[in-house]
Amino acid sequence: MVVARDLATVPHPSTASTEPTMLDRSANDVTDLLRAWGAGDVQASEAVAPLVYDELRRQAGLALRREGEGHTLQTTALVHEAWLRLDGQRGTQWDSRSQFFAVAAQIMRRILVDHARRRYAHKRGGAPTQVTLGAVDREDQRHASGSSLDPVDLVALDAALARLGALDPQKVRLVELRYFAGLSMSEAAEALGVSLATAGREWAVARMWLRRELER
Q: Which residue from 28, 101, 106, 162 has the highest number of Cβ atoms inside 10 Å of its Cβ?
């Protein structure tokens, strides 16, 4: 049985003792550790934590920045909660490093939406958390102008994604990878096992569909 472990006890890779066999693992090595972890190997869980920590922090930081000002979650807190939920996925068959981070993106989405709902309840009608899918295209200025989804309520976006998931789950996974995990289009395409051109078309269709739903 995998023992849940808080990432607060994991040394940050930049300060941990530097053993090449640990810090210089290839993607295949990480995948092997993830598979062993899913099979219940506690030592694999211990070994993989520092190897995925930086990427989880990057995902969490991007997700929080895209919420704009006003959120109360800290990056470290989001990472730790995501890790605990990941560690609680007993018996998960991890197929790849990309799959692991895709699941992490789904979990961060759930945490952020749950947190937003609690904030709304606490504020009793306070301003909703505004997000925009256009933020993920800033690395490509050719698509940034005139193509951004206007700022929307994070909870409304989550509900729209749930409706889209009933029609096309892969488009939802693409949005999660691009928005919540901060993956580039090429990284998202690789994680989904599709071509870059296919991912680009899927992304464009997903955003148009979401815009229509959210403007109703």
A: 101
